[in-house]
Amino acid sequence: SSSNTSLTLDQVEFVIANANGVAATTGASHSTVSITIVGASGDLAKKKIFPALFALFYDGHLPQHFTVCGYARSKMTDEELRLKISGNLTCRIDRSENCGDKMEEFLKRCFYHPGQYDSLENFAQLNEKLKGHEQGRIAHRLFYLSVPPNVFVDAAKCGSLAASSSTGWTRVIVEKPFGRDSESSAQLTSGLKQYLNEDQIYRIDHYLGKELVENLSVLRFSNLVFEPLWSRKYIRNVQIIFAEDFGTEGRGGYFDRYGIIRDIMQNHLLQIVALFAMEPPVSLDAEDVRNEKVKVVRSMRPLSIEDTAVGQYKGYSKDGVRFPGYTDDSTVPKNSITPTFAAAALFIDNARWDGVPFLMKAGKALQTRRTEIRVQFRHVPGNLFKRNLGTELDKATNELVIRVQPDEAIYLKINNKVPGLGMRLDRSTLDLLYADRYSKEIPDAYERLLLDAIAGERRLFIRSDELDAAWKIFTPLLKDLERKKTAPELYPYGSRGPVGAHYLAAKHNVKWG
Ligand code: NDP
Ligand code: BG6
């Protein structure tokens, strides 16, 4: 299914039964799903994974029988785990009265098992514990590897050898980062594939679970008005902008090894470009969509250092408040040249996009938090209204903005006659603001992705050939930056970022939106 978030509990169970080749006649109530969060003591588990599972449960999307088990090295009892996660559970979807009851019901199904990530013995004990909860039902097992990447292969090995399901499917969600470059990514893939088949591996990129990213294909392929314009013929440039108004606080250790290009561009932004630019897929089936994504990513030219600008935020004081610089973080080396900001011009060498710059920009500690796709269209040829547009002719081209977050929206900037006598034009917007149009709260990306993994829907997960193609675009640039020890341009915390990004845009005749 392509719209799993609207699946009912029965439908999910039906999908699970079928995906596993289990005859539907075995009855959904005879099966159960055990979800093990490996690294359950960590930040992501607490902030995202447990709350997403609760939201799914609350909304009736989880199967009738399920268990959630936290696994990590820290010593914790079931009760301690429940206490730790309960503060982050919210009844976001429908604030009805039974919220507290539902939370209690959910927490009763959450357990904890302490163990090492490389211990077959500890995973075998986990296996016994899961079996106890599964009570002889057909048991499907989902493992979520929410641990640092150096532990991925060990955990996949022990999970698959000592705790995989003997009666149902076993699937493993793997968090990013999937390597640091082509070689390390290939190594990780081959490490995982020693113990898992590709169709058991769910590489997560949570941006693919975001509502407006998921909507890109709907916008393009179900509206006649957009698709004919979707090429070099009518589009001047495309901008994919990611900005956060906070720094790497608390994650400096991880971040310094990766940097913004690996943390945001190689995955989240590239995935957006792929969905934006791919050819129409044969169908919405996972393999058809992913085939098209791989195709377009393979047509992208590897990024060059000449078409890239990098920056790093520095400390800034305002009204007596001090905002720390990146290297002020005690877990970051004082002489670090890791970029916390990058802008790059990407080109797709195919018939549809030849010559159109796709400008990506990603930065931490900037003025605002936003993720947007901005599509700037060409000038109207022989525009009859040149004079009425005054000196603002350049701004007078149409622009489509897809605001992924916050305040999800899609709007189109058009030229319009200012009402009244005379003929003066101004810029107006046709506006679809989600909060005004839809009353239901938008589910978190992790909800959609967890539900898909349970249902065996792989469309929104990254296939290994997609990953290889993605690294091919970024690896030469990353190596070049490292070899040349390129110093990032410093920008103050809370600013608009380094001016280098503007020079880069100007070089390609683009103005950032
Ligand atoms: P944490 O650093 O909190 O690690 C999770 C758990 O792994 C810890 O609680 C710890 O558990 C164990 N752990 C930590 N360091 C090590 C180590 N060196 N060796 C073995 N075990 C270790 O990570 P997050 O929860 O923040 O992230 C989990 C995964 O998700 C990572 O791969 C991260 O890159 C990715 N991710 C995180 C995001 C976030 O917002 N946090 C966003 C996107 C991706 P214990 O000591 O109890 O075993
Ligand atoms: C993660 C990055 O993948 O995405 C973080 O590792 C970043 O550095 C985060 O903050 C942003 O996600 P979101 O959903 O808050 O935009």
UniProtKB/TrEMBL annotation:
Chain's role: Catalyzes the rate-limiting step of the oxidative pentose-phosphate pathway, which represents a route for the dissimilation of carbohydrates besides glycolysis.
Catalyzed reactions per annotation: D-glucose 6-phosphate + NADP(+) = 6-phospho-D-glucono-1,5-lactone + NADPH + H(+)
Name of the protein described by the UniProt record: Glucose-6-phosphate 1-dehydrogenase
Species annotation: Selaginella moellendorffii
Record-listed E.C. numbers: 1.1.1.49
Entry's family note: Belongs to the glucose-6-phosphate dehydrogenase family.
GO biological process annotation, one example: glucose metabolic process
Domain of life from the UniProt record: Eukaryota
SUPFAM superfamilies in the cross-refs: Glyceraldehyde-3-phosphate dehydrogenase-like, C-terminal domain (SSF55347), NAD(P)-binding Rossmann-fold domains (SSF51735)
Keywords on record: Carbohydrate metabolism, Glucose metabolism, NADP, Oxidoreductase
InterPro entries hit by this protein: G6P_DH, G6P_DH_AS, G6P_DH_C, G6P_DH_NAD-bd, NAD(P)-bd_dom_sf
